[in-house]
Amino acid sequence: MTHSPLALERDGDVALLVLDAPPRNVMDRAFFEAFAACVRDVLPGLDAAGLVVRARGRHFSAGADVDQLRQVAASGDSEACRSLRENAAAFTALEALPFPTVAAVDGACLGSGLELALACGGRVATPSALFAAPEASFDLMPGCGGTVRLPERIGVGAALDLLLTGRYVDAQEALHLGLVDVLAPRAELHGAAVRWVRRLAAERGRFP
What we know:
The chain is of the alpha/beta class. The strands form 2 sheets. It has a 6-stranded mixed beta sheet, with helices on both faces. Strands 5-7-8 form a 3-stranded mixed beta sheet. It has a single domain (6-203), classed as 2-enoyl-CoA Hydratase, Chain A, domain 1. The chain is built from 8 helices and 9 strands.
């Protein structure tokens, strides 16, 4: 039986979408297929005040499988290009859910992992979290909406710096830039993320 790279759990009225391919939670084809099916067929119908996107293991996500991305980019195959568009559409569908979403980030949050966090309405991170959009160093570019959402979150100048250099941003700088909303110790990350999503839900009138 194949292990799913995603798990759906609950914490009371808050749903939890768990990246479940530790330790790096790499986003390969299996991940994107499971994620697209989840945001299309499962999440929109949830009776939930909000959703926390978190990960099992040391890292939120090291991003997409670079070798697979290079193969797709080199092939020019229409079917492969369609799959890239579907990946981006799945992130947009997450952003459009009828309840608030918050990413709970620990460890590495890179590439498509960063794009996933950006597609959430809020981001809570540990002091040891690291953020980067390293695609430029692989002669690639973010393909799941990061080039739009990052400037929206932190401004055009700061976004261009991260996108063109691929440099790593620690949690404190991420907080300063506005990329992260709040920091919490690792032991308190889950609770902080749940509180943050409940706060967003209350602002929308979805939670008492």
